[in-house]
Amino acid sequence: MIGLLASVIDGVLIGAVYGLAAMGITLIWGVMDVINLTHGAMIVAGMFGLYYLTGTLGLPAYAALPPVLVAGFGVGVALYWIAVHRMIGRPPLMSLLSTFSVNLILIGLGTAAWGTVLFNVPVSVQGLRLSIGRYTFPGTHIMAALLTAVIAGVLYFFLYRTRTGKAIRAVAGNREAAELVGIPTTRVLALAFGLGVALAGVSGMLIGTLFPFTVLAGDAYQLKSFVVTVLGGLGNPTGALIAGVALGLVEGLATPFMPVSWTLVMEFVLFVLVLIAFPGGVLKFKRARRASAR
To answer: Which string of b and e fits 142-177 if b means at least 16 CB within 10 Å?
Structure first.
């Protein structure tokens, strides 16, 4: 019983990072109706950012977070102008193909540079650990979940309490009306895309403190992000975080009873079932049902 509880707690801690990764996808979709298929590559970029900042510059692992965040934002803005800007307002398939093309280029360049060698960043957090019986949770897992909570809180404050954040929400709600009141929508879209990519990069950095990785590791985490996004509802960053924790909880419950290789299969069965039953996402469905009840 204690082993199952430990597995669930560890799953929730890791699930918080899944939620952070999915927040990047859902923010971009909510603002501009674009599915960013460079998401996995940006997660890997965050992992390699951690690897080189700690290995080459000698930074402590968590001190790499601000540089990865800033670099991710810059890369995201550049990607917006290169691959997305001309696709705004066109059928979703256009932006899907555009970002997918960039994703293939980035993966190809990464594979040519580093191959598929496994990389690992040894990280330890002295004095931070949680023990339940004979089970001990690494400080890295706890730190990743805590940093995710802080980043999510800062993002929420930014979106709901700052002038720029309110402009992003206004553009997401009605781009034409936002333009009529003088909001520079093109710059806001570039900002939102940059934020989404920055969140992907930071989530990759945090995942890099937990697990070894390769250039091709981003695909699995991108797929998990899609599952989380559908569970939480497209365009709902808060729902993405909650759904990420829920997915981690499901993984934690399933791991003691099935091989790890089957976990991804189970997640995609859940993904299909949610798409059939709640196309707008479970959390959006519940919110809509409460609104109709009033």
So the answer is: bbbbebbeebbeebeeebeeeeebebbbbbbeebee
Kindly report the CA angle at 16 between 150 and 250, in degrees rounded to 5? 160
Q: How far is CA 142 from CA 146, 147, 223, 228, in A?
A: 6, 9, 23, 20
CA distances for 292 relative to 207, 285, 286, 287, angstroms: 40, 11, 10, 9
Specify the length of the chain in residues. Answer: 294
Q: How far apart are CA 48 and CA 107, in angstroms?
A: 13
> Could you give the CA distance from residue 9 to residue 248 in angstroms, rounded to a whole number?
9
Q: pLDDT, tens digit, for every residue of 102-134?
A: 999 999 999 999 998 999 998 888 777 766 666
Q: Is the dihedral of CA 219, 221, 224, 229 positive or negative?
A: negative
For 224, the token pair is: 């998990």
The structure's pTM equals 0.90
Q: Say what angle helices 139-161 and 237-254 make with each other, to 10 degrees.
A: 160
Whether the Cβ atoms of residue 242 and residue 232 lie closer than 8 Å to each other:
yes
Q: CA distances (Å), 1 to each of 5, 272, 274, in order?
A: 6, 30, 29
Domains annotated on the chain, with CATH: 2-123+136-293 (1.10.3470)
CB pairs under 8 A, 24+ apart, for 146-150? 147/62, 147/65, 147/206, 148/16, 148/17, 148/19, 148/20, 148/203, 148/206, 148/241, 149/16
